[in-house]
Design brief:
single chain; 86 residues; Four Helix Bundle (Hemerythrin (Met), subunit A); 60% helix; DUF5062_sf
Length: 86
Amino acid sequence: MSREKEEAELVREALRVGALYMKKRGAGEFEPTDGAGAKVRALYRLLVHDGLIQPLAKGQDNERNMKHKLALWIERQLPEGHPLKT
């Protein structure tokens, strides 16, 4: 599987798990009409705020880099042997 496809699947999983985290934490929830970009930004900002991921450097905070950070975050959360874990 290509690295880009793998990262896209990790981001999808991060958004799924992140939505549960947001709801459990009481920080809101995603609406069905929310776009993927809005979800990525909201989850990234929440995880940075909570200290679960390091913020991107100034000027590097674009959607592509945020997705990469979310993919790295969820990859660390997955159990050993999970199909998405490399």
